[in-house]
Every structure is written in structure tokens, then in C-alpha cells.
Amino acid sequence: MERMPVVGVVGVTGAVGQEMLRVLSERRFPMRGLRVFASSRSAGKRVGYSGGEVEVEELKKGVFKGIDIVLFSAGGGTSREYAPDAVSSGCVVIDNSSAFRMESTVPLVVPEINGSDVRWHEGIIANPNCSTIISLMALAPLHREYGLKRVIASTYQAVSGTGAMAIEELRRQVEQISRGEEVTREVYPHQIAFNVMPHVDSFLDTGYTKEEMKMQNEGRKILHHDRLMVSCTCVRVPVYRAHSISVSAEFQEEIDVAGARQMIENFPGIQVKDDPGRNEYPMPLEVAGENDCYVGRIRKDLALENGLSFWVVGDQLLKGAALNAVQIAELLVEG
Ligand code: A2P
Both 190 and 246 in a single domain? Predict the structure, then answer.
């Protein structure tokens, strides 16, 4: 890979796309050039980058010539349609959608956990699901030491995970309620302001949603652990930014709480904030905008054998999406 690549961002006007630009700039990602794309609606707009501005180009077939690495975050349909074109133009695609994650030729990478998997890519590398990344940041160091068997998890997912339109929907509904007006909705099937909705992504015949299956399916691929069992309930909450996950995990080996805490503390990209006596535990309001994930409420699980329960929070636009994608790009450049 070129050490000073030309970088592309597809979906640059979106919630994750905007963060991708900010993270690239903040981490001083080495590049010779930057090209940014969105739909025809945004073509010609200018977006800020590193103190300057870049003009948004319309995404079309053939636009990728001369680009070395392109980050996609414009939904699965756009990735399916345009990522193969980018690959045939010689780009390496880092795709934030779920379109290619489970394909056998596509590495699914969290750099701190399975960074070496980038080596076997054939043009596309997938960025995992946001709640999966955040949960695995805490589970991976424990798995290495104690051998993970099964996970029971509930997510508390922020609206920005749905995109810019959903951030606007929550803001508008809060204003409508405070003015005593009728609440309108466009994005979610129910009012999200002052509510919680046990529904993220579409339902399968099993009664689980697609989002709920990602933690098991993607978790197995990232941890190289085919027998991992996960039962997950995904919930949308009226939080603008940062996902929280309540995790109970069962391990092969007997687990001691102090040792588990140490394993998590020693792992890069995750911090322990756990002092219940002082009301200290991670919450989305504080974790929003942070690169690291935070774990608290670490305790022995009372219902599982060799079990541990904890609460983990991460900014899903950063470690759950843009930051993880840029870290993958960094691995490519470092070679
Ligand atoms: P645009 O702003 O021009 O619609 P979010 O997930 O926050 O809703 O953002 C989605 C991103 O994906 C936006 O940048 C959006 O661009 C882009 N996008 C959506 N559909 C397409 C498409 N068909 N072609 C290119 N970009 C798209």
C-alpha cells in the first residue's frame, strides 16, 4: 500500500462520514489527497477538513480512479452497488455497512483484537457492527484469559446510529412535546422522545432482529471463535450519541473479578470507570466524543457459571464506526 495514499470518503455528509473526516484530520492521517462523495443532492456542497474545505462530488461509477483507500458509510445498498467498482479501480475499500461483513473473502476487523486479519483482504475490509465492536472491546481481553462461552446482552443504542435524520427526529420531537404540539415521526415506527423501543433493524422469523444476530455472527468471525453463543436484545433509546451495552458473559475458566478488571484495564482502547460507592460508572453523556470505550459495574454474575456481568459504553460514531475504520486504514498504510 502507498505510504501517502489518496483517500476517499463515501457518505461524507452523513453522521459517520462527518466523523470520518474529523478523525482523519485529528489523527493526521498521512495522505496525498482527499476526495469526498455523497448523493447528487449534496454534489457541489463544501465540507470542512483540517481547517480548509473540500467539495463534495456526486458518487458515480468510475469516480474512484487514482484513489488508494476509500471509506464507505452510505448504507448497504450504496456499498453493494459501488464498492466493487472501487475495487476494480484499484482501491482498498473499508466498508462500514453490513453488506460484506460475513463474506469469507472479506476480513472483519477491530484493530486491537484481530488487526492481522487485514493482511488477507482481496480489496474489501469490513468495519463491524457498532454494538459488536464496543462489546468485544471488553470481551476480547477476557476471552484470551478465560475462554468465552456465551454472552447475554442488552443494548441501549443512541439515535445517531440510525443517521443524521434520526438525530433530527429526536430533537424535533423533544421540541414538539415541550411546546405541547402533536409529535410527528418520519424515521422510527414509534415516538422515540421519552420512550425506549425494543427494535433495531428488521425482524427475522426467529423473533430476533438482524442487529441482534450481528453480535453472535460477527463476534465469532472477529474472535475466531465459531462456537460462541450470543443472545442479544437491541433497544433504541432517546440518547443522541454513544451506545451502552449490559453484558453477562460465561467463561470456560473460573473468573475472578479483580483479574478480569485488570485484563480490561491493560487492553488498549478501553478504560475502566467503576466506583459504585462514588456513583461512578460510564454513561453516554460523558462517553460521547471519546475515542476509548469505558467499562463499569464489573461484578460476578449470579446466574451463570464462571460468569461476569458489566456495563460498557462507547461512542458508536467513533470506535463503533469512523475511528475503527480509520484505524484499519492506518494498518494498511503501516503495512
Ligand atoms: P446525502 O447527504 O447526499 O443524501 P446518514 O447515515 O447520516 O443518513 O448519511 C448517509 C450518507 O450516505 C449521506 O452522506 C448521504 O448523502 C449518503 N448517501 C445516501 N444514499 C446515497 C447514494 N445513493 N449515493 C451516494 N451517497 C448516498
Answer: yes
